[in-house]
Amino acid sequence: MIFGSTASPMPDYSVIDAFSGAGGMTLGFVDARFCGGFRSVWAIDNDRAAIESYQSNFGEHAECNDIEKRLSTGSVPPADAVIGGPPCQGFSLLNKNKEGDGRRQLWEPFMEVVERSSCRVFVIENVRWLHNSTELAMIRARASALGFEVHAGVFNTADYGVPQARHRALVLGVKRRKGTSLDFPFPATHRDPAKCRGIFDSDIPVWRTVRDAIGDLSAPVGTEIRSERPPLDLHFGRNPTELSKKRYAAVPYGGNRFNLQENAPALTPGCWIRKKSGGTDLFGRLWWERPSVTIRTEFFKPEKGRYLHPDQDRPITHREAARLMSFPDDFEFCGSKTEIAKQIGNAVPPLFAGAVAKSVRNWLANEDRVSAA
Domains in the chain and their CATH numbers? Predict the structure, then answer.
């Protein structure tokens, strides 16, 4: 399926996705289920499997290449908007050696794409720590020199209908011609049920939950990608050891590694016993009635986070992770199990991207209407 190929009643705006991954952010912009009104004209990423996924869903205009090499030898097509997420590991708290990490500077080729495309708006998505970084100040300075007004903030994707509490930084640049208004921060579409402020909150639905996303799926079958129609194609399990199975069973609903240690100390790794403090998501079990925790690239390993199924003694599957990221079942992922997991965990949730895209699309349309008046 090629998304965004059907006619849209909205103006047709062009978009480039730099550091595109499999195309979660593009999907939010081009698919009418999320926003619509945009057409993808170019995408680039150096992950071969991710680009195969992008091409399967959006067309052959995506290319697998190193962006800096590509910019030194090739042209950039014109576009109304440039979107993307330069690799975030250089900003992440999971990276203990941030200084000197070359990935921190990949915003520079992104901004070169912005300049060479002559776009009117750009969106950078990244981990929340970008918001307080020195790199954000440099991005602001570069964007200002190009004539952009820059807005930045940290957003929880659960506030936009994604069944996942994922806090992300966004940098939005607009090149105003007529001074039209822009919705920023983007209006939330969902609310935290624990933070009801008054009677008017009843008009906004509460956060979507793990049950909303995956409650209809039966137990997974097999351990490999299946030649079945979605959602069963990616709804496969793992082949855990007997020790792992016993550990899974020892973690209660909503529990974590500390419950494992309490209930089955003989099954608990010695390093966990010696480490008395630490995150409470490690080896944790998801809650049905809440959004999931952040889905990362190794969601299939419970030792990496709260990735145990709410009531089955197993990690979540690739299909479940994709749904918790708000990917529709008809989105086609290409590659090996590990490659697909990486694409899912690194993606921008399409529902969140769609909320961003609506504000961008409306601003572009307002600018065009005022200019034509």
Answer: 13-195+348-367 (3.40.50.150), 210-345 (3.90.120)
